[in-house]
């Protein structure tokens, strides 16, 4: 936590510093939120462009999900799915 005792009022200098630091954090977060929104719009536009080129959006999302997994996780997941499909008689 903070080294500033809470039972004593802040000096004017400390209060000014805290105010500027708080303002800096808020402004940085606001800029990042704007960037996040712009990136989200860019991703949406890219999906729409891919759809316009004839690609299946659900398949693209699945590929992105798979690519985020490490190889061992992916192999384990695929083995479990195959086992369940065999148990359901859906795979020969």
From TrEMBL:
Family membership noted in the UniProt record: Belongs to the UPF0335 family.
Keyword flag Coiled coil: yes
Pfam families: GapR_DNA-bd
Keywords: Coiled coil
Organism annotation: Starkeya nomas
Coiled-coil zones: 15-49
Ranges where the GapR-like DNA-binding domain occurs: 18-89
Name assigned to this protein: UPF0335 protein STARVERO_02739
Gene Ontology terms for molecular function: DNA binding
InterPro entries in the record: GapR-like (IPR018753), GapR-like_DNA-bd (IPR046367)
